[in-house]
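Quick start: what a row looks like.
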Amino acid sequence: MSREGTILHADLDAFYASVEQRDDPRLRGRPVIVGGGVVLAASYEAKAYGVATAMGATQARSLCPHAIVVPPRMSAYSAASKAVFEVFRNTTPLVEGLSIDEAFLDVGGLRRIAWPPSGIATRLRAEVLERVGLPITVGVARTKFLAKVASGVAKPDGLLVVPPENELGFLHPLAVERLWGVGKVTAAKLHEHGISTVGEVAELPEYILVSILGRALGRHLHALAHNLDPRPVQVGRRRRSIGAQRALGRRAPTTPEAIDAVAIALVDRIARRLRAAGRVSRTVVLRLRFADYSRVTRSHTLSQPTCATEAILTTVRALVARAMPLIEQRGLTLVGVAVGNLDDDDAVQLVLPFDEEAGAALDAVLDTLHDRFGSAAVTRAVLLGHDPGLTIPLLPE
């Protein structure tokens, strides 16, 4: 019996930028930025200069003046994603897609008829490179959580197998930020208590973590710090809702522009997940947590189900506008967006606001960007590169 874990987390490296470098040999080995007004993706050569996704174009160019900036080509990224997922499904039927560029694979049923998990991961990486021409990093472990951590540590273009007998030896020296659910705010709370590594989290009794972070998050991190993650790889699961949230530091700006940037980032992620899953939503939900720890939830049901970034973002902006008096009074520490009432995208007749070709082009680029002004005309101009001077933060791929 293999001593290796059987869960793989496969994650394409700097996905958008890697596609551009694959398709244009002149870009290989050079710093590449995908985007116009903001950095939608950066090659590792650009990241070496401090360029990061969501960074404004002006700042990115100041850090890396010789970077090559290319406009996004969402149709190319979508085609590459489909080709990669075909390799995944040819490897094992147990594939759980997380986004356009990453997935969990369970290869436990293959070890008697094929190779050990590490061998399967090696072959998977080789096939993605050969068939799709893209680098991919794979982490192998017993649990989904640890497999994802392993792939993060192994990036870029790496393979890391965490043997069961050394799981905690690998996990505990890592920074607390490696734990799912630990963002800047939670990390700051832990650091205030002298906790900087996963091992230090594991040493604490659960009730101490609960007292610091609250019941749900405290119990969650206590379990992860001991690599307790019983979740199986789930194929074809039907979500009732899809959401994302962003915790804000207490000193983070809460101007309408800053909040709008967060809303853009969250909606971008959610809309891409909807489209990747082939689903549409009718209900949009906004969740806010204030500086006094109180919370509010606002929602709106659309007349037509949609997976379009623009439609969801317009709704979120309207909900934020209604909540601005409360934000100004109480401050803001968390923004969450979710979509519900999901259906398959081929089960409804969508009403498109413009012709099919233009609509497809706009939705493609809106997979990663929407400008802060809410005007469809300005949006198109920005995304087609007519006004590359705008700087609008966006969430990483």
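That is the whole record. The radius of gyration is 21 Å. Residues 346-397 have pLDDT under 50 and may be disordered.
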